[in-house]
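Give me a protein, keeping tokens residue-aligned:
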Amino acid sequence: MCAMSDPTATTSPWPGRARVGARWAARTALAIGGALIAVLLFARVSAPIGPFDATLAFRPASGGAEVAVPPLGSLAVDVYDGPLRLDISLQSVDQARAQALASDPVLLAGVVDRVTEDLQSAVVRLVWVTAFWALAGAALVSWVVLRRRREPLIALGVTTAVLATTGAVGAATWRPEALSQPTYTGLLVNANSLIGNAQDIVARFDAYRASLEDLVANVGTLYATLSALPSPTGAGDSVALLHISDIHLNPAGFDLMRQVVEKFDVDGVLDTGDLTDWGSEPENRLITSVGDLDVPYVYIRGNHDSATTAEILAAQSNVTVLDDSDVRIAGIRIVGAPDPRFTPDKSTGDDEAGADVLVTSGEELADFAGTLAEPPAIALVHDPKQAPPLDGVVPLVLAGHTHERAVERLSEETLLMVQGSTGGAGLRGLQGEYPEPLTCTVLYLDPASGSLLAYDEITLGGLGATEVTVQRTIVAADQARDAEGAVAPPEEGGAVVAPVPAGDPVVPASPAG
């Protein structure tokens, strides 16, 4: 007897749906697997990025970008989220492009824009190459494994959807501010402590120089105030020399120097060193602007300046580089010696290890001064530690290095004047809460004897400052000294402070070069 089937019974849909789901899961896995294999094997591009030859590729990771700089290490930036990371490997330096960049200040000034354009072009090309190989790999693997004509088309659709989703996630989570906060590995871990936060320095310098453009021009107004003061000689006859030091390649320091040379009608510039920060070739290409000054420029090398820096400056028609040698400006004889050290990297500790060589350098300069037919009026050294052997040999010694302005009379009556920093300690000076002020001093000397009659100390405040000041000090032969040897203020108010608020009218100034 046969059993009758129940006509009301229905077949469960779940086994069929499970098979369909499993089939699509297998299709998706094959498509993604094939796409990844093809991308890993073939999806990369080679491109020039600035002076570098680089290779770019996408790799499976949790988003972001990583730049490899072999053998120094790498830096990573978390600029976007997603399943792919952009890997950039700097393979080598193209010598022709690097030489062109180092020898052309215009190209050097636009290097950031050039690198950005090169990188954008390379990334766009990489996106298209990656998409092509991902689609090709997905279609090929699906056809080889499943052997159905429609499977490659399905794989193309699945892969296109995955690529579009990946791109959408990356665009939605794009964080350009992360570019200024990289994570370093390898030897590059010291980079952040060396250059500081790039975003902060760039942002602060833009604001800093914008404010200094007005402040530098206001020096003209200050000169109008000072011109009403009696002449240091009483007869209007004196030699004016501008003492600068430690510009550290700050463009604002060059701006200040040019304005003071013009507005104060100085007869020459005395630079006690550290014109650059590292003495490197790209820096040296930018310092030749001192050759555009219409006055003599006397320079000694600081511990941040290389021998190449001195050679490039010596090639300028108006520049004299002193190295245990002498020169005359408007009848004033000047001798000078460089800092015997070259220690641009403060982290090595070498800067404090050279006291003996500094003293020896001062002694050698003193010996040279003693061989001259007539004693010099001024000696230039970079580090104040070179000054003691010159005490009693030269009446005035100018120095820098410390970034702190100071005036001191030594035991044998030699006056030691230490300049602050005409460049505000360079761009690194912007990393503190308040940037260092920019300082320089105009010296007025008797043209016959070379003795110092008076000096104007010019100070431009750092970021956020509202005034520029010039303080004139009259030097008397019998000027009193305090117990520590520091020069006391003149008894009859020889110092004049002339503040200029940032919003006051200014004397028109020629544009900075």
Notes: DSSP finds twelve helices and 19 strands in the chain. The radius of gyration is 34 Å. Residues 111-146 form the longest helix (36 residues).
